[in-house]
Design goal:
The chain has helices at 100-105, 129-136, 145-159, 173-179, 184-197; strands at 2-24, 35-45, 50-55, 61-67, 71-84, 161-162, 181-182, 202-209, 227-233, 240-244, 249-250, 255-261, 270-275, 280-290. By secondary structure, the protein is α+β, with helices and mostly antiparallel strands. The longest helix is centred in the middle third of the chain and has 15 residues, at 145-159. The chain is globular and about 60 Å long. The N and C termini lie close together (6 Å).
Amino acid sequence: MLYDLSLHMGYSYDAPASGARHIMRLMPLSLANRQRLIAGSITISPSPDEQSHFVDFFHHPATSFLLRAPHETLDIRMQARVQVESQPIAADFSPLLADLPEEISGMWSLAPDSPHHFLGDSPRLTEAREIADYARSCATPDLTAMQIAHALCARINKDFTYDPEATTVDTTPIEAFKLKRGVCQDFTHVMILALRSLGIPAGYVSGFLRTIPPPGKERLEGADAMHAWVRIWCGETIGWIELDPTNNIPAGMDHIVVAYGRDYSDVVPVIGVLKSYGGHRAVQAVDVIPLK
């Protein structure tokens, strides 16, 4: 499947901002046997005084830029063409939960995709007893790691209500868990914590999702936003799988990966510091257009 992507992120400040330094992770990845970035560009307005590119620990390309002069708005636009490959349906050769620690201990690699990085606490995710208890209700001894992951995905999708007004980007997983409401970031963080509490390595995926309008309705341009889902390590034989608890589906040809991390803090699309006072307003619009 071939997609054209466009993303607009805009910020307006109550008082002019200056000395702004930001880091962006917006461009889709090229992943062997998964997806290929054919072409892409990012434009920034006002034009940066300094700009540099680097690759972070998780092998994601990132851009750092500096705006010295006062500015009342910041406008970032990304365009890309991406080809996504269909994925074969994998048989479940994952170990039982009791046998998973032995497989993890046998993994000596500390490469970015090593399961060891995705087991303990991370900047936004720390142990929560309520979520651990919730996870144990889905983890009977006769289930494999993959079966538990699918069961948790379905349970969260059933128990939680998608509500973009209920939470913010700074809402903690335990707050979202108590509300049983939120957005894809909340669903993803809760599922990651639940899996880690069971000893199953899990991480955060940032990207785009093609959405299909209801029957009889036209697709709204710019109505989509960036999406998030979960990456789970299911043993040495299978490796990593990806599940989308917001929609209770495996990540497939409609999911386009931008970045992998331990939690949202590793994959924030735009993050930075600046000098200003007062508040600011942000807008985000995404178009995911299938070409064939």
